[in-house]
Structures are given as C-alpha cells and as structure tokens.
Amino acid sequence: MESPLDSGNSLSKNLNSTPKRDNLAFGFPIFLLSESIIFVSFFVTYALLRWKNSTWFPPGVSGLDIPRAAINTVILVSSSIVLYFAERAIARHKLVKFRRLWLLTAALGVIFLIGQVIEWRNMPFGLDAGLAGATFYLLTGFHGMHVFTGVVLLLYMYGRSLVPGNYNAGHQGVSAVSLFWHFVDVIWIILFMLLYIW
Predict the structure, then answer these.
(1) What domains are there in the chain, each with its CATH number?
(2) Which of 37, 102, 111, 173 is least enclosed, having the fewest CB within 10 Å?
(3) H-state helical runs in the chain
(4) Phi and psi at residue 80, in whole multiples of 5°?
(5) What is this structure's pTM?
(6) pLDDT tens readout for residues 134-192
C-alpha cells in the first residue's frame, strides 16, 4: 500500500515535470513560427530581387549545379524519412532501434553539410559576385547553421537515450528535435526550388 509520503513525493514529481513538458509543447512551436517568418522574409526578398533583375548570374555563369544539389536534397529528405521511423521506434519503446535510426539521421545531416561545403568550394562565383552571390551564400549559410544545430540536438538527444530512465516520463524532447529537423528539411526543399530550379 502506498504511504502518504510516497504519494506526496509522486505528486511533487508530477508537479515539477508537467510545467516543463507544457513549456516545451507551447514554446517550441512558437520558436519554429518565428524561424519560419525569418525564412519567409528571406524567400520573398530573394524572389523580388530575382524578378527585378533579368540578368541574375555573373558573366559566364548560366546557372548552378543542379545534380549535386539534387543529391544533397535526396540525402536530407532521406534523413527525415529515417527520423520518422526513429520516432515510431521510440513510441513503441524500441530503444535500441531508435538509437540506430536516430544516429543515422545525424550522420546523414553531417553528409549533407559536407556536400554543402563541397558545393561552396566548387561555386563559379563568390560572396562578392553581386546579388546572386550575396543571396546564395546568405540563404544556404543560414540554412546550414540550422542543419548544424539540428545535428548537435540529435547527438544530444542520442546521448540522453544512453542514460537509463531518461525517457521513462515521456520523450517530448525527441518530438521537439524531430519537428525541428523536419522543418529544416522543408526549408531546404523550398531553397532548392528557388536557388537551383528557378
């Protein structure tokens, strides 16, 4: 039979943990909304600049390397698919499978960043190449910072999964990081369409 002291301790734990979960569930979508507003403002600015300038790329440059960017896009989209199955694994309490898929997601994120660096190194123009250079490096660099942040968060949550009992009270942190990663993925797809396809 549970003693009054045990009941009090259990109630105290619930009171202490519930606000944290509520704050995460409420605050994180607001954070993503603010990030979305920033990216949308960048997208609109880029579209207006591109529309007003008939000659966009520097002389001698007809466009960007679509095949390389397409491969990078497939890598990032694949990471979101892997992450989806990692979320399903943790929901079914399959912790070992979750760790493998979660770590694979982070690895794909690192591969994407390496591909982005290779893209920058092989660009036919630099940051100082007018509006085309400035907007390209600003947009891809800002997105790359978010991918890097996502990888760090993925690795942090992976580390937490190695500590017994960390996810006994739920896995809201996993859900939040997953939402952030899917957000970064969607942003890249829009960037790919704007920068490479348009």
Answers:
(1) 65-197 (1.20.120.80)
(2) 37
(3) 4-52, 66-91, 95-121, 130-161, 172-192
(4) -70, -35
(5) 0.84
(6) 999 999 999 999 999 999 999 999 998 888 877 765 678 899 999 999 999 999 999 99
